[in-house]
Amino acid sequence: MTQAQPIVVQRWNVLSIAAVTSLVALLVALAFGPTYLGPNLTDRITTLFIYVILAAMWNALAGYAGLVSVGQQAFFGLGAYAAIRLSNAGINVYLALALAPLIVGAASFPLSALALRLRGGEFAIGMWVFAELAHLSVNLDGLVQGETGTSLIALSAFAPDVRRACNYWIALALMTALVGLVFVLLRSRTGAAIQAIRDNEEAAASVGVRVFATKRLIFVLAAAGCAAAGSLTLSTLISFQPKTYFSVQWTAYMIFMTLVGGLGTFEGPIIGAVIFFVIETIFGASGVWYLVGLGASALLFSLFLPRGIWGTLTDRFGIHLMPVGYRLRFGSGEPR
Amino acid sequence: MAEPDVLVATGIVKRFNAFVAVADVDFRLGRDEAVGIVGPNGAGKTTLLNVLAGTYAPSAGTVHFNGTDVTGLDAASRNRLGIARTHQVPRPFANMTVFENVFVAASMGGELAGARAYDAAIESLRLCGMLELGNRRAETLGLLDRKGLELARALATDPKVLLLDEIGAGLTDAEAGELVAIIRGLRERGIAIVWIEHVLHVLLQIVERLVCMDAGAIIAEGAPDDVLANPAVIDAYLGSGVT
């Protein structure tokens, strides 16, 4: 192949190298969080980590794979429930919290065979129905006693300070691992295939993309990720009431964070999670008006900034901090 | 025939509920051959192409590729074996760049990784004159470039058989001339071609055999001049009574 001009496929640039380096530095600084944050802030930041996981998972599912689900609370609730069950069976409580997402992820594999047959709105509502079914089934468990609920009693064996620090570190580790996994996946060949499916499923199949298997990969990842968030939330709240965990509000939060940050951008949902976290911290105590405000701002965003904050910025300035795409760089013709 | 045909479809029937879109069609494509499919709208041309590509499973009949029965394989698997297609209405991956569109094809259909996938994608774009558009989001492309992208994407999967669905429609004479030059280049690379096209003067510059379909059946096939002179073909196009 004779090249008229050298063409380089560029993935990293100075900006993205700087961004990823600062991100790593930030994560290292956060790793020492419990030593300087104080008990209240440590708890709050743990919650932020959970939000980042939720936003990143919903974005991977809807923004990249085009699978809009209104039922991700199913996996969130099942993650918490699995941890309760495992701990009750005598497994070490932290091991139970870690195993729960893996079990839910495995269970979502056969579910995907049914769920992924549904298209568009059918899938969205079908997942909601599944979440309600999961909620009702968990209510039937004698251990949970319906909406009376139960709690992760084994955690009370640990001193509150130890528990707080452990929760923080586990949440930080899981967030880093899950968001890192999404990053690696999106950068891989599979990541490009996932986006091709989102944009046009039939065309993707016609260029050799194994549509079902690829969708299933993301479906299972998002299920396990939401279950991890549920299991982490249980470790912070300790109490388990099914209606809290299986509430559709969790998916509403995910949608809010993703839409505000920028659906289908890697950076957007993380920014959306931080924004949601700040709003909740400031206005969370105002009850109903807080929820009205959230709903109104989501509406305004979808009307006037449909690509979200980060999506609008990338459209306007072409900046990508996390390099998941490909740019062609054309040689200027001068010998180098 | 010295060499066996690369693509053989036998007894293809495709029904949509009560409607029979393709009724018992036999179709063969030789290695290095270029066959045109013509016929009025609704004749079943695109449905036949979809059955060949694996987008639709036929209601009856078999499809063989390189002597292997591929009837049970889906479109993705057939593409990986070497059957690529373009769509009548272009279907770009709208939110991805032109290069990313073609890269997906090279890495999935072409089963290439890393630099080899990049090279295959760049080569396909260059061949279709799309290279300088590489960083454009596909949704910003006009119709001509969307068609170019369809072709570049299909090529990047390294096909042995290329199924083209009305890729010449709506092009100016100059654009059609460029398209003919590109497709001639593909034939020289040994890619066999099935081309559905209404724009006959473009089609006839490429194909050596013509198949005419009407109402789901093949009504004539052979050398282009013979097919176009066939009374049944004239009837199908113009309606009976006009001679």
Summary tags:
heterodimer; A: 336 residues; mainly alpha; ABC transporter involved in vitamin B12 uptake, BtuC; two-stranded antiparallel sheet; 15 helices; 4 strands; globular; B: 243 residues; Rossmann fold; 4-stranded antiparallel β-sheet; 37% helix
Question: Can you describe this structure?
Answer:
- The complex is a heterodimer of chains A (336) and B (243).
- With 336 residues, chain A is mainly α.
- Chain A has a single domain (7-330), classed as ABC transporter involved in vitamin B12 uptake, BtuC.
- Chain A is 72% helix and 4% strand.
- Chain A is built from 15 helices and four strands.
- Chain A has helices at 14-31, 33-36, 38-64, 73-88, 93-115, 120-140, 160-187, 189-199, 201-206, 211-237, 242-245, 249-261, 268-283, 288-304, 308-317, and strands at residues 7-10, 150-151, 239-240, 327-330.
- In chain A, the strands form two sheets. A two-stranded antiparallel sheet of chain A has the order 1-4.
- In chain A, helix 3 packs parallel to helix 7 and helix 8 packs across helix 10 (211-237).
- The model of chain A has no long low-confidence stretch (mean pLDDT 88).
- Chain B has a six-stranded mixed beta sheet with strand order 6-7-8-3-9-10, with helices on both faces. A four-stranded antiparallel beta sheet of chain B has the order 2-1-4-5, with helices on one face.
- Chain B has a domain at 1-73 and 193-243: P-loop containing nucleotide triphosphate hydrolases (Rossmann fold, 3-Layer(aba) Sandwich), CATH 3.40.50.
- Chain B is α/β, with parallel strands linked by helices and 243 residues long.
- Chain B has helices at residues 45-53, 75-81, 98-108, 114-127, 143-156, 173-188, 200-203, 224-229, 231-238, and strands at 7-16, 19-29, 34-38, 60-65, 68-69, 83-85, 161-165, 192-196, 209-214, 217-222.
- Chain B contains nine helices and ten strands.
- The model of chain B has no long low-confidence stretch (mean pLDDT 90).
- In chain B, a hairpin with a 2-residue loop joins strand 9 (209-214) and strand 10 (217-222).
- At the A-B interface, helix 8, helix 9 and strand 4 of A face helix 2, helix 3, helix 4 and helix 5 of B.
